[in-house]
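Page 47, continued from p. 46.
Same chain as before, 209 aa.
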Amino acid sequence: MPPAPERVADDREVPSPSAFDATPAPSTGDARAPVTILASTFVLALVLRAVHALATDPVLSSVGDNTAFRETARSVATGNWGRLPTMDGSEAISVKFPPLWPWTLGAGQRVLWFLDPDTANGVWSVLLGAAVAPLAGLLAWRLLDRLPLGSRRLIAGGIAVVAAVHPLLIGATNSLMSEVVVVPISLGVLLLADRVHRRGPTARSLVAL
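Result:
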């Protein structure tokens, strides 16, 4: 029987299992959210929406959604709890539309009590609409945490700028339609969901969601 072949020691380095992990390492350096970039895009969004609000008026009609929002908001602001006149001359709370947006406008009228209701609606809508830009940028910043820090800042800032200058988002600001508040709330829910995913659920975060 021929002798077994002699095993030759292999001095080549055997890669560790982690070497096959294709997941890029998290970015290093200052990983805090770029406050300056987000604040700058908020100011940009605020200015563009303010200019649009000053140059145009909301298109209201007797059967339009925004007319109902406007009247309900005024009822909320005056302490009438959103009750509107009915056909029989009494007052009742309307259930035709969800209450969040008109109540948000009513709260804005109470906060901006020194302005007339229509002006308060416009100012409040501009402030809420401008929040879209930093919220979009912050969400991108959190989701792109595997990118290098420079690329992460560039993409997050670019997304925030797009949200600030997007004509549909600017145009919605002065429409008195609920899109003004739906988009920021949606971004806020996504940010909260990301926080829950990263840190685990808590009673407070689950209630907020």
